[in-house]
Amino acid sequence: MKKLESLKTQDPTSIEVLNEVRFCQADLAKAAATELREEQSLALLQALTGLILMENSSAELQSILSEGTGGIANTNLTVFLPAWSIPITLSLNFPPLPGWKALIQRNKN
Fold this sequence. Notes:
elongated; alpha+beta; 109 residues; two-stranded antiparallel sheet; single chain
């Protein structure tokens, strides 16, 4: 925290300040990962990295879930990180709920 306090009087757009903020972000992310293990909260990850996670379900998925009839549908996840963010690696897992069957297709663009 003292590192960040010392930056308050400096030009926030300078490369030195930006680099120091990134170092602090990395330290915070490491500390959080150590404490929270693999179950990091999305809110914490977003606060530390600026991560934006957008989900776009097909109309079929919304219908299947609301009616409970079953069937095949798609959802797309888009992940954005701002240029100032520290690099991160994400691993997402979507296990089916009890009684569900899942067909997992990965779109590799």
